[in-house]
Amino acid sequence: MTQKYRCPICGEIYDDMSQDGFCSKAECYGVGLLETYDDSSASSVDISGKESISIDSDKIGLCVLVCDASGSMETPAFPGNPATRVRLVANAAAAGISDLYAGSDVSEQTFSKPEEAYIAIVAFGETAALIKGKSGELFIKTVAQIQNDFPMREDLAEFLYHSLTDECPVDRGYTDITKALMLAKKIQTAAIEGDFSAYGISGDFRVMEHELIEKETNQMLSVPNTRILIYSDGGHNPGDRTPLENPFETEELSTLMTSFFGNPDSSDTIERKGADEMRTMACLCPKHKMTGYFLINTPQRYAMLRGLFRMASGASGFCPACLKDVGLGDS
Questions:
Q1: Measured between alpha carbons, how far is 331 from 310 in angstroms, rounded to an integer?
Q2: Which phi and psi (to 5°) does residue 4 adopt?
Q3: How far apart are CA 249 and CA 254, in angstroms?
Q4: What residues have CB less than 8 Å from 41, skipping those under 6 apart?
Q5: What are the backbone angles phi and psi of residue 79, rounded to the nearest 5°?
């Protein structure tokens, strides 16, 4: 548990108390008196002073994007190209999410009910926390709300890039995958229980379900319309050295998809460990009996990230074969 300081007006988190005890943002001048705050409450903080947010639909779908914000994500992704891993991820995520409301060169068909599809974005490093929206609210938003805030995918890409770098809500010195997964599970559970009040969102709702045929038994399965997608470029490396725990492994049908950004055969033991962990944690697709693990280790494989983010956000699949089924995967 780390002692930090929070502005009750805008929700900004500070590692140290400011010299005058106030938030440094101009809009908080004279009233943003910093209060003590411990980062273990980051997943359930209520942003005081903000206009209340309510859910208008009685049924929703949810995708939780769990984003590695560790410092190593700012290294170049591929030899001979200066683009960093975090930049590539931000661009691909923005393209995939905005495809749901703006169409794409893959398919011009946009999302049918953008007001019912929620996307939560979690950043993790030493700790894990939801990133903040444009107005300081926790980022659990519908596709329709994202479209309203970011009609141009370039703007969404810039927002995501800064949310995972200079405006990141967590310390980026370590990589605690357990804390990331625990927060994602907590958000998913809140959705299934129909209660987002811990995240400053009111309203009664339920998670819709969809049906698919299980390959081996030919039985119809009913699946909650939620997906968790975590990506990383290294292994679980927490400051307190606690072992990795995966809260999704006890689910009858895990909804955890994973992606590794790097070389699984690297001479770097942390990188190899990360690839193994992501592959081991991934769900098993009930339709194709493939693991929901996606390896991004070449510029060609990077191209499928856009489709992966779109598929996860639309809760339409679990594995690389699902990606191909909807025309978003590599050939």
A1: 17
A2: -130, -175
A3: 7
A4: none
A5: -55, 135
DSSP letter for 73, please.
G
Distance CA 281, CA 12 (A): 33
Task: Tell me the C-alpha distance between 176 and 124, whole Å.
Answer: 7
The C-alpha atoms of residue 225 and residue 189 are separated, in whole angstroms, by 12
Whether 10 and 28 have beta carbons less than 8 Å apart is answered as yes
CA distance 188 to 196: 10
Q: Phi-psi category of 66—alpha, beta or left, where left has phi over 0 and alpha has psi -120 to 50?
A: beta
How far apart, in whole angstroms, are the C-alpha atoms of residue 77 and residue 110?
30
Cβ burial, residue 24 (10 Å; 0-12/13-18/19+): middle
152: exposed, middle or buried (Cβ count in 10 Å: 0-12, 13-18, 19+): exposed
N- to C-terminal Cα separation, the chain: 46
What's the per-residue H, E or C state across 78-142? CCCCCCEHHHHHHHHHHHHHHHHHHCCCCCCCCCCCCCCEEEEEEEECCCEEECECCCCCECEEE
- How do the pLDDT tens digits run along the chain, 331 residues long? 467 887 766 778 888 888 777 778 776 666 567 777 655 444 434 444 444 577 877 889 999 999 999 999 999 999 888 999 999 999 999 999 998 887 655 444 456 678 899 999 999 999 999 999 998 999 999 999 999 999 999 999 999 999 999 999 999 999 999 999 999 999 999 999 999 999 999 988 999 887 777 777 778 877 888 999 999 999 999 989 999 999 999 998 899 999 999 999 999 998 999 999 999 999 999 888 999 999 999 998 998 899 999 999 987 789 999 988 767 765 4
Residue 112 and residue 143 in contact, taking contact as beta carbons nearer than 8 Å: no
SS3 196: coil
pTM for this one? 0.81
